[in-house]
């Protein structure tokens, strides 16, 4: 694999490429240790131990070890037992075992369980040993790189959340429309930055085989992609000053089409009922469509397969029109309802980014209204988007 994409990504993130050069040899026979040490110590830092217990002491010390080669047959602790004990505490460590043909079955079982990376049959070939050590240390470097990248991305994701939360507090006293526009402007920049990082990241992880380390990076990239999508929707809904007359059914249809583009409308039909007296409403169409998309997405995720999602549009007095999105899922407890419209809060498992309902709240306030979440007896949630509208 071409290492340049990884090198470029590390440079983009301001990280240094990890170097794996330290090898620990474990064998109860001193002569074997001496031969292996002489074979390897010209190119790598070599440490030795004559028992599994001594090896564990070295690995639990401040001495960093990248690769272990251990004999299988040792008193008190076998090679597989030693490497199994290290699989959780040293996940980036490359683990190799020297074994006779008669011991192959337990070694293969350990490989299948992820406890051992490589086994070498005795009598071993010196040239092959050097080649396998070089390959193992290269794998160790890739593992360390993926972990470093994943931790960096997770930190950046957390910082982006903190930044957006801080911005939310900074403009809390502003009018809702101004607040939404400012958040949208910031989100547009966030979308560009996340998109650039995601493109670089895909070029690195797509060619790699699936391991716990690469899956960790893939999961981080999925969370970043979701945040980017939600931030993009926030940017698109930012200008609530441009308003016009729009038919409620058209707004709902556009939102459903966006939902279908995401592949979220396959199992739950959407039923729509609109007060016949409401022919049009005077609103910012893009903002309302993004709100409805968020409410429908939440309803789809909460509802059991096959359960319909009900959308109602009705008048509430002389000044308000309400869009209602109702599901028949498990519902929300009181604590979740109180926090649901706060930025970055999510009651789902696994959690979403928590931007959808906060966007709805800001858009509703920009239209002189509010967002309400109610229990839907006997199960589910009713999400109400209240809009103070004119010219209907």
Please render the helix and strand layout as text:
Layout: H1 4-13, E1 22-26, H2 30-40, E2 45-49, H3 52-59, E3 67-71, H4 79-89, E4 94-99, H5 104-112, E5 118-121, H6 126-170, H7 176-205, H8 212-236, E6 244-246, H9 248-261, E7 270-274, E8 281-283, H10 285-302, E9 309-316, E10 320-326, H11 334-339, H12 356-366, E11 370-375, E12 381-388
Parallel strand pairs: 1-2, 1-3, 3-4, 4-5, 7-9
Antiparallel strand pairs: 6-8, 9-10, 10-12, 11-12
Question: How does this model look, in words?
Answer:
The protein is an alpha/beta fold and 392 residues long. The chain is 51% helix and 17% strand. The protein has 3 domains: 4-142, 3-Layer(aba) Sandwich (Rossmann fold), CATH 3.40.50.2300; 151-236, no CATH class; 244-388, 2-Layer Sandwich (Heat Shock Protein 90), CATH 3.30.565.10. The chain has helices at residues 4-13, 30-40, 52-59, 79-89, 104-112, 126-170, 176-205, 212-236, 248-261, 285-302, 334-339, 356-366; strands at residues 22-26, 45-49, 67-71, 94-99, 118-121, 244-246, 270-274, 281-283, 309-316, 320-326, 370-375, 381-388. The chain has a 5-stranded parallel sheet with strand order 2-1-3-4-5, sandwiched between helices. It has a 5-stranded mixed sheet with strand order 7-9-10-12-11. A hairpin with a 5-residue loop joins strand 11 and strand 12 (381-388). The longest helix has 45 residues, at 126-170. It starts with a helix and ends with a strand. Residues 169-176 and 184-191 have low confidence and may be disordered.
Q: Unreliable stretches, pLDDT < 50, 5 or more residues?
A: 169-176, 184-191
Question: Percent of residues in beta strands?
Answer: 15-25%
Q: Helix- and strand-based class?
A: alpha/beta
Shape summary: elongated
